[in-house]
Amino acid sequence: MYSFPIVEPDPGHTKLRLSREGLEAIERITNPISSVAVIGPYRSGKSFLLNQLLSLSCDEGFGVGHMRDTKTKGIWIWGTPIELDIDGVRTSVLYLDTEGFESIGKSNVYDDRIFALATVMSSVLIYNLPETVSYCSPPLVVFIAVVYLAIREADISRLSFAVELAEEFYGRVKGQDVAFEPAKLLWLIQRDFLQGKSVQEMVNEALQRVPNIDGNKNIDMVNQIRDSLAIMGDNSTAFSLPQPHLQRTKLCEMKDAELDQLYVKRKEQLKELVASMVRPKIVQGKTLSGKEFVSFLEQILDALNKGDIPSTGSLVEVFNKGILEKCLKLFSEKMATLDLPRPEVSLQEAHDKSRDEVMQVFDQQHFGRHHAKKSIVQLDEEIQKVYKNVILQNEYQSSKLCEGLYTRCEDIMDQLQVLRLPSMAKFNAGFLQCNSSFEQECVGPSKTNYEQRMMKMLGKSRSLFIKEYNHRLFNWLVVFSLVMVVIGRFIIKFILIEVGAWILFIFLETYTRMFWTAESLYYNPVWHFIVATWETLVYSPILDLDRWAIPLGVMVSLFILYWRCYGRRKYGSQLLPLYSSNKSSPNRPRTD
């Protein structure tokens, strides 16, 4: 097998792009994937170190260069994964070789992207620190010098990036089987000066702040690195590796027997350490297969290529995107369960409650302790967009409901205007019922507008009814009195009915003639008594004479007809004071 690139530089050597040929080989892997990446300055022995970890010669493994320009371009991968059983799970471990920092013809931002991508994609990140200081330096000074000089000033921002990842992600998922777990950092110090103390003890001591009474900027910078790296805590490990041989340019030609035996021993220990640190890559709560690893790589690369400088914030946005969409869907589902229309206050309360619940879910699941604010703002903006649509739906449903109630009341008022038997009591009952049902059933933002329309319509209908009421009642009473005269004289021949009907007719006609207009009658106490009597007869909660006028009229007509034809023969005429006529009597006296 051989090594091949999975990420290559673009023509301008500022951004990264995927190498499809290499990715196809990764996509065929079905086991959970873990990856080990080596980073560091160019010509620091990264490719040689990876070959040593894989037990490969320089001819078999990653290409090793000794020239001033870097041999590795972008990120390369060894084509044959190492199969390991990790916690009972068969895991494919990929080894990644990265392009060295600060090689000729590259920009710092390109190095930042390489560093960021390796940091995010790897399960174990080996930071290779080459020999840079003299053997006579005190151990603590040596280590600080290694950190400060070997990494160089340009790497301070890269270390800050790694620490930001630890702050944003590691502190949240530590000890939990969830989401993106940053790579474990392995400081590999290639020196043979470390004596008396373990390299880990020296790392711990080196990460302690030192006083800076004089305000030296370099000490401040180193203290800043100390504080940042200390955050990673047990997520970082240090390991020392002596030089394999003094003739470094000939290392590829040497066998293990020719190398320093302490180096060979430590190399085997390093293999065991790396194997113990390796864990399947976990993203959003699950391990990654080959296809998922490639998809994850595409997401991260797209995020890192955005803008001029790669940032932790852009990565946080990538990881929060799915959670944001899930929370937004949850909010939409909660709002969809609301019964619309509803009052604006109630809708706002439901919105606030749903938003608080969704924000609580997002707070529990989102990534990023500092850079998540942008995602929170974005979620809030999306929630407001959904809420605006709900407001529009509520307004539409409210307008539709209130319009229907308004139209129903308008029809009722129109029907009350044309009652066969005009009744103020029935009109008032219908008026109150219509107004009450509208107040109870019309809800939402359109209620205020329709209330105003409703009041105008009801007021207009009431004024028109009152205006026509007395006039129609007057005509009804005139007709009624004449009808009763006919009935009392010619049909049932009941003199009291005829007399009463004549009195009513004469009162109505003579009063209007005496006082010029019928309107003057409406203020007379007698008229008020007549109206009260009429209202009592025409409408009550028990009997609505307007509704039953025709059936009752038919029944009365049938009764009168029956009485006229059969009642007098059977019961005689003594029940009613009927008219008597002697025209047919045999004893009727003659007149000349």
Write structural notes for this entry.
This protein has 592 residues and is an alpha/beta fold. Among the domains are: 3-309, Rossmann fold, CATH 3.40.50.300; 316-394, no CATH class. 57% of the residues lie in helices and 10% in strands. The protein is built from 17 helices and eleven strands. It has helices at residues 20-27, 46-53, 108-121, 139-151, 155-173, 199-206, 217-232, 261-277, 290-305, 312-336, 344-365, 373-417, 424-441, 447-491, 495-514, 525-538, 545-571; strands at residues 3-9, 16-18, 33-39, 75-78, 82-86, 89-98, 124-129, 184-189, 236-240, 282-283, 286-287. Strands 1, 2, 3, 4, 5, 6, 7, 8 and 9 form a nine-stranded mixed beta sheet that branches. Strands 10-11 form a two-stranded antiparallel ribbon. Strand 10 (282-283) and strand 11 form a beta hairpin. Helix 12 runs antiparallel to helix 13 and helix 14 packs across helix 15 (495-514). The chain starts with a strand and ends in a 21-residue tail after the last helix. Residues 132-156 and 170-179 have low confidence and may be disordered.
